[in-house]
Amino acid sequence: MSDVDPSPTPPPPHVYRHRLPTRIWHWVNAVTLLVLLMSGLTIFNAHPRLYWGEYGANFDRAWLVIGSTADEGYLRIGDWRVETTGVLGRWTDAEGIQKTWAFPGWATIPTSYSLADGRRWHLFFAWVMAMGLTLYMLWTAIGGHLKKDLHVRRTEWSPRHIWDDIKDHARLRFPTGDAAARYGILQKLSYIGVIFILLPLMIATGLTMSPGINAGAPWLLDLFGGRQSARSIHFIAAWALVAFFLVHNLMVLLAGPVNEVRSMVTGWFRLPPEKDA
Amino acid sequence: MNEIILPRRQLIARVGGLAATLPLLSACDAINDAPAVRKILSMGEEMNRASQRALIDRNALAREYSRADLSPYFRPNGTRLPAGAAYAAHAASGFGDWRVAVTGLVARPLSLSMADIRAMPQRTQITRHDCVEGWSAIGQWTGVQLSRILAAAGVSDNARYIVFRCADRLGDALYYESCDMIDARHPQTILAWALNDAVLPIANGAPLRLRIERQLGYKHAKYVNAIEAVASLDGIGAGKGGYWEDRIDYEWYAGI
Q1: What does the DSSP 8-state code read for residue B107?
Q2: Between chains, do B213 and A228 touch, taking CB under 8 Å as contact?
Q3: Rg for chain B (alpha carbons), in Å?
Q4: Which of B49, B59, B122, B209 is deepest in the core (most CB within 10 A)?
Q5: Parallel, antiparallel, or unpaired: how do β-strands A268-270 and A14-16 relate?
Q6: Residues in B 173-212 with any Cβ partner in A closer than 8 A
Q7: What is the pLDDT along chain A (277 residues), one digit of tens a residue?
Q8: Of the candidates B136, B250, B251, which has its C-beta nearest A228's C-beta?
Q9: Neighbouring C-alpha atoms within 13 Å toward the C-beta of A172
């Protein structure tokens, strides 16, 4: 017995990774952005056509259309057209009834077509998102999160460093030890992109669609090239957020979902042990 | 064999998945229909109205465009041809007998003919029409400012809303809409009788329609034949101030 090594393996070190405002904002956003996306799809269904410029209606050329013919659904972008029967434009609901709304009921709030209800959800949760974002931006700037965790250091901007991080992600090699407590360059850029570019862009293009705001801030129309352009950009940026969501969740799954989710609930993150060389 | 079985398995899995989501979907709709939820959601409308009224000058103008910006075709929406013999007779006679009653909290109730309205000072504006559905069309409108009609009728200080009554019947009722006194007195709020230098087409609301440029399309009442100044919207329809507001819960304040 005495020749057994008596020293137990030390418990893996835990770091306090996410402070309370980050955790609250994260989960509020998870719900809010889902509601905004699904109610936004309801609103899109009211007129599933997108245009560039100030005006655009049924008789004008749309750059994107989700439509239906007698027997198929389709998506047309410019001159490129793809059949989407079953998913977009023509699909069958849970009761077996053929529907021709652009996005199917399982993807929209409410599940039946109601532009009025979709707008109620969208325009309430838009306030939740905008106020949450404003508070979080202020907190990141004043509370040091921006400077300490998100600030991209000069050395990190080097193309070689960025390329190395891309390669590491592609090989699913995630940082271990102390390096795992910090954000990598791609993480920093994606979080900064969402907080300071994509979400503000959603708010600004959303407000540009408001005829009331247009009267008070007509420069928004010039900034985005007109109301229908703002509507198109709003739609594209929404899918950019969906893309972020997908990659974000894939990374959580690959990096260790229990540890990652726990750190976003309790704040405490278990550092993955250094691998032996 | 596997190649044949696999798609069927996938099909079964898909149908099974669909059935499993059914309770979830109906739960979502139960949330959507709960009165408490609807009350919370409708706070968004009040926040939009209050913030726009607080932050935007009450006379701030909607953008006016140039003739080069006009939509090639101005899409009509809603009623395109009011039903009934009375409207058909008006249309056949060129709306020579059309009257717009101005009533309610006014010192001098009026009954205006189209000739009366055209004899007043006119305003022409090229503006963008934004439908709640998402599309936009740019048109040139000519008509009389509502503020002039209200002044001619001597609208009372007790009036808080202006109600517009229309000649088109949609389903169970004639169309109606309303706005507050800020939008009623806004310089671009006009009763228009011309679109793109031609007499207003029937599909677009002949002989007279409202233009209320800082709000969405359903607020722009067409076929207007009565204007009423009121202190409260309680007695109008179901009390929410408009045809769609009362029926499907569109926002009364449609500035966004």
Answers
A1: S
A2: no
A3: 23
A4: B209
A5: antiparallel
A6: none
A7: 445 555 666 677 889 999 999 999 999 999 999 999 999 999 999 999 999 999 999 999 999 999 999 999 999 999 999 999 999 999 999 889 999 999 999 999 999 999 999 999 999 999 999 999 999 999 999 988 888 899 999 999 999 999 999 999 988 888 888 888 889 999 999 999 999 999 999 999 999 999 999 999 999 999 999 999 999 999 999 999 999 999 999 999 998 999 999 999 999 999 988 765 4
A8: B136
A9: 7
**Contact yes or no for B135/A43 (Cβ under 8 A):** no
What phi, psi does A2 have (nearest 5°)?
A: -70, -15
Could you report how far apart the first and last alpha carbons of chain A are, in Å?
31
Give the span between the Cα atoms of B74 and B52, in whole angstroms.
28
Give the 3-state secondary structure of B17-50.
HHHHHHHHHHHHHHHHHCHHHHHHHCHHHHHHHH
Task: Determine the distance in angstroms separating the CA of A80 from the nearest CA of chain B, rounded to an integer.
Answer: 22
Give B71's strand partners. none
| DSSP labels, chain A | -TTS--PPPPPPPEEE-S-HHHHHHHHHHHHHHHHHHHHHHHHHHHS-EE-SSS-B-TTSPPSEEEEE-SS-EEEEETTEEEE-TTTSSSEE-TTS-EE--SS-GGGSSSSS--HHHHHHHHHHHHHHHHHHHHHHHHHHHHSSHIIIIIPPPGGGGSHHHHHHHHHHHHTT----GGGGGS--HHHHHHHHIIIIIIHHHHHHHHHHT-HHHHHH-THHHHHHTSHHHHHHHHHHHHHHHHHHHHHHHHHHHHH-HHHHHHHHHTSEEEPPPPPP-
As for the ipTM of the complex, it is 0.90
Cβ-contact A227, A209 below 8 angstroms: yes
- Other C-beta atoms within 10 Å of A68: how many? 20
Q: In terms of DSSP bridges, do strands A268-270 and B99-104 run parallel, antiparallel, or are they unpaired? A: unpaired
Mutate to test the interface with B, among A44, A55, A203, A205 (most CBs of B within 10 A): A55
Q: How many CA atoms lie within 13 A of B115 on its CB side?
A: 3
Helix axes A227-255, A199-208, angle to 10 degrees: 160
Using an 8 Å CB-CB cutoff, list chain B residues near A117. 32, 249
Partners of A47 on chain B (C-beta within 8 Å) are: 131, 133-135
